[in-house]
Amino acid sequence: MASEFRNRPSVTLVDRIKAVTMRQQGKTIIDRYNETNSYKDRPRSGRPRISTQKDDKNLIRLVKKNRTEPSHVLANQWKLSNGKTASSSLVRRRLLAKKLEWKFAVKKPRLSANHVKARKAFCKMVKSCPVSKWRQVLFSDEMNIEVGNRKNRIFIRRTSAEKYNQDCIIKRTKQGNSSIWIWCCMSYYGLGIHCIFDGRLN
């Protein structure tokens, strides 16, 4: 009898752990069936999610309608649309989950449809210019600087990929109340001179 036990294959520790785990899982399933008369998982504990996927999509729609709205205003608008009360922090969490962050708005010149069309035509025209041609070109421009005007710092909600979308850009004009102007130039060889002056450039 002792020789028969010695000839039996040994069970490794890993196999023993697997056997115990399978037994425990089987017992859990049997106990669940005896209590609920079903093999399905029980409902998870904890507070249920206050918003549905449809509610979240509606929130994103509200943001894209006006990207400068603060979170407490969005919470009120959200409540009017779905009847659910949500805090400002919940609104921010839902938007951050969709990568809609509170960022500075990019400022670009205010362009008309003709300006956009002309710029595209120019880019297509010079697209294939050789390097020797660009060595002969001098770029120059002027702009006004509104010193100490913090109203220019406007926040909006956007993703990183939406940085230069039309509805994420704050349009600015070259006219302003500031008396400080700067003119500078650059070429193929680097930056050129710059000049700070008062009034408009003639």
TrEMBL record:
Signal peptide: none
Gene Ontology biological process: DNA integration; DNA transposition
Transposase Tc1-like domain: residues covered: 57-124
Molecular function GO terms recorded: DNA binding
InterPro entries recorded: RNaseH_sf, Transposase_Tc1-like
Protein name as annotated: Transposase Tc1-like domain-containing protein
Species name: Brachionus calyciflorus
Lineage summary: Eukaryota, Metazoa, Spiralia, Gnathifera, Rotifera
